[in-house]
């Protein structure tokens, strides 16, 4: 997998970067590309040696690491590395690249290079890549595939992004259900290979209907003359092409699956889901929570068109505006005292802001608790009690700190006392709201993270202003 | 895995819940427990039949589903279900339970029941469970293990929570490196079983030093008389017990691993890491981002002691307080105009609040982009441009909306114009800061999510007040 001289891929990458930065390699490459007349013969030989070493080093890296290398070097050097990657790694590297670098590499490549790279990929990988390739490459690429692969690519492209069909893979070992273990063993011996991390052999009947799965572990340990039907798991967890990929991923987590069959509406085996593919999805799902919490549509991508991104944020801006105008109306009711004590206007944001952030901390904790299922109906009240106690401690402490700062700034003991009390009360409310909002969202069938940051800020602002100004009226 | 009558585990769970809610089963169980005199013989027979059916249904469920069942029924019914679980599932079910329900179940159980349940677990699972068991159960449990298992449990308990050692498993197939494939095959045939999802066989020398791994796929397809050393991967990606589990998880994602050997400081094979265990960790890591963003220490747990939770939040509250007092000082500088136009105090929070939330949306997007590596040095500027354009559109649109609402509320055209302009400028600044903060945190070697929510709110508050009040002074 890696050069034995380097204990870590990152060391190999750094070494390669240093090599590229030595000008002679770049020069040697340019010579080779442009067939320019060579300088001194000796110099050129060294250059070519370096180039060959570079090529060797690059192709010893895992495609994920080649992609990282491409991403971390300046654009003008990417052409060199890209052209030194062997065809057998080029396609896999393309799949691992970030969108922007992939786009750049693809635009700068010849059609035949891209077709050659894609030919070393499995059908499901080609599907992922096809959407990123220029239109004129696709017919060439499709015509280079076998009829079976072409059909797999076409059908997989028809599945929605978040369905099992879009995440399934096609390189799976399949056997018929009417043979013995011995026959299965001989069959794969003759074939001479099994897909990497195959894990399980799929078992179907004459019509291609899924009958069960055979774990490689069982095939290895059970003796050979017994019929396959006696050994297979006849009721494996399987998925339909139209099932939600997100739910499939959570089943993989729940039941510790490595591979599971995918069937179509007629029960025919059409592919497999592998844990390696779903790892990416699981990561993606968790990342989405961060977006949801900030009030972003889950489908927003980093480089979506401006009009789409702008619209995407409207619902939450609108809700936010509504809440903050309500908070504003509350302040407006207290204009008499504010015109008497203008300082109140300056102190107004302090308790509301601290309350908002304290509330956000609680929200984050609750969202995680709900996601990991640590928080459930049985211990909700316990959490409310605990967060209330934390707020009692922190409210008293930071209320006092705020009171002292206010006293130092304005030499007004009543004002300092108002600040202390307001901070204390606002933090208590923030704790309760912070626990309540995600749980309420979940009870309403929504994602508990959905816009919770907008809601908590609005709620603590409104309450914070009300508490602070009411206390000011009462005490000052 | 599940009762053929139910296509989904959730259906089976609902059916079981309905059965428990029929009083006769509970009664039958109480009879059985307390050896109370039975009512009518016929009635009791039906009851016992129901109880047997219930037991059958429960034990057909996956332990993860039994745990879900226990979590979703009222506490007073948990005892029944818990006692109907067979010993072979009880330990695994305990591991799947939420902390609070596990605590409840464990407290209500007899020592011998817990020991019996734990005996069906692997050493690594016992390690996870031991920390949750009452002190008096542990000696009994340890003495029921084999010497080898006891050592595994003791050594694994010594590893820090976030190390590979704490996540490794011990049930792994191992062979010596000086035999042929045929011998390996015969060895496992004779053993009659391999761990579930073993995936790879570990190969060691006489001294237990790791020499390589043998994929089950290769063992199945290669012919039998060749020495194992010719087939094994002699340079597999392996981990040290002291390596970071988080980095191991990201290697699993990166290189699509299913299983990898774990070695100690002397190169001796001591266990394996499996993707199924790391799935939980990957999920946990992603969840932590949510906490970090809100300014929470990554180690905070839902039910940590109050003093620990309270202290955990101090650094960010302190920073927050500092920033908001700076914002307050800015408002204080404008006391002349506020005392002239008291309405300004009421309108003050509006632009700052909208700016804070708009900034949070951008931050969430950038954090995700950095985590998925879609955002890198090459396209940062492109993102700044895009977010600036989105802010231009949304600033103009929502600035106008805000202006119109202000006009309707106060019938003051200049004031409405101040609001429109302030909203527009604040949203532009929020976009730039929103892209800048996570990227700056990352450049400083910090997690880009670290406290970003606190920082962005502070920055937009300060700027929002300054912009709004300066515009008020200039225009009103």
From TrEMBL, chains A, B:
Main location (coarse class): membrane
GO cellular component: plasma membrane
Residue intervals passing through the bilayer: 388-410, 416-441, 453-475
GO MF assignments: magnesium ion transmembrane transporter activity; metal ion binding
Localization (cell): Cell membrane; Membrane
Domain (CBS): residue spans on this chain: 168-230, 232-290
Domain of life: Bacteria
Cross-referenced Gene3D superfamilies: CBS-domain, MgtE N-terminal domain-like, SLC41 divalent cation transporters, integral membrane domain
Membrane topology: Multi-pass membrane protein
Alphabetic keyword roster: CBS domain, Cell membrane, Magnesium, Membrane, Metal-binding, Transmembrane, Transmembrane helix, Transport
PROSITE patterns according to UniProt: CBS (PS51371)
Role summary: Acts as a magnesium transporter.
Subunit details: Homodimer.
Alphabetical list of PANTHER family matching this protein: MAGNESIUM TRANSPORTER MGTE
Protein family (similarity comment): Belongs to the SLC41A transporter family.
Protein name: Magnesium transporter MgtE
């Amino acid at each position: 997998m890696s050069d034995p001289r380097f204990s870590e891929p990152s060391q190999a990458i750094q070494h390669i970067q240093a090599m590229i930065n030595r000008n002679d390699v770049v020069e040697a490459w340019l010579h080779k590309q442009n067939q320019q007349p060579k300088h001194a013969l000796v110099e050129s030989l060294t250059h070519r040696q370096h180039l060959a070493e570079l090529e060797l080093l690059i192709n010893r890296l895992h495609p994920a690491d080649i992609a990282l290398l491409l991403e971390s070097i300046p654009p003008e050097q990417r052409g060199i590395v890209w052209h030194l990657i062997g065809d057998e790694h080029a396609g896999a590297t393309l799949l691992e690249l970030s969108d922007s670098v992939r786009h750049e590499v693809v635009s700068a490549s010849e059609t035949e290079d891209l077709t050659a790279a894609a030919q070393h990929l499995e059908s499901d990988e080609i599907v992922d890549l096809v959407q990123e390739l220029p239109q004129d490459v696709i017919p060439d690429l499709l015509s280079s595939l076998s009829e079976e692969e072409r059909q797999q690519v076409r059908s997989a492209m028809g599945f929605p992004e978040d369905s099992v069909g879009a995440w399934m893979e096609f390189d799976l070992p399949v056997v018929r259900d009417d043979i013995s273990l011995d026959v299965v063993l001989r069959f794969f011996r003759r074939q001479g290979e099994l897909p990497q991390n195959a894990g399980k052999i799929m078992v179907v009947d004459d019509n291609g209907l899924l009958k069960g799965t055979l774990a490689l572990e069982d095939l290895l340990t059970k003796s050979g003359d017994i019929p396959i039907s006696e050994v297979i798991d006849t009721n494996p967890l399987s998925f339909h092409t139209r099932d939600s990929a997100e739910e499939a991923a959570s089943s993989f987590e729940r039941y510790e699956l490595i591979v599971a069959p995918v069937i179509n509406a007629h029960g025919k085996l059409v592919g497999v889901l592998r844990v390696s593919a779903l790892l990416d999805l699981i990561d993606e799902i968790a990342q989405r929570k961060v977006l949801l919490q900030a009030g972003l549509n889950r489908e927003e991508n980093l480089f979506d068109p401006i009009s789409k991104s702008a619209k995407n944020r409207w619902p939450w801006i609108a809700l936010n505006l509504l809440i903050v105008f309500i908070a504003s109306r509350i302040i407006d009711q207290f204009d008499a005292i504010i015109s008497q004590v203008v300082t109140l206007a300056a102190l107004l944001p302090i308790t509301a802001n601290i309350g908002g952030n304290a509330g956000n901390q609680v929200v984050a904790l609750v969202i995680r608790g709900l996601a990991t299922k640590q928080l459930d109906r049985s211990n909700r009240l316990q959490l409310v009690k605990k967060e209330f106690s934390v707020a009692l401690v922190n409210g008293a402490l930071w209320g006092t700190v705020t009171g002292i700062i206010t006293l130092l700034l304005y030499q007004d003991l009543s004002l300092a006392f108002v600040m202390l009390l307001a901070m204390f009360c606002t933090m208590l409310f923030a704790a309760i709201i912070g626990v309540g909002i995600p749980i309420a969202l979940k009870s309403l069938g929504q994602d508990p993270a959905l816009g919770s940051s907008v809601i908590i800020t609005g709620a603590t602002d409104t309450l914070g202003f009300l508490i602070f100004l009411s206390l000011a009226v009462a005490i000052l």
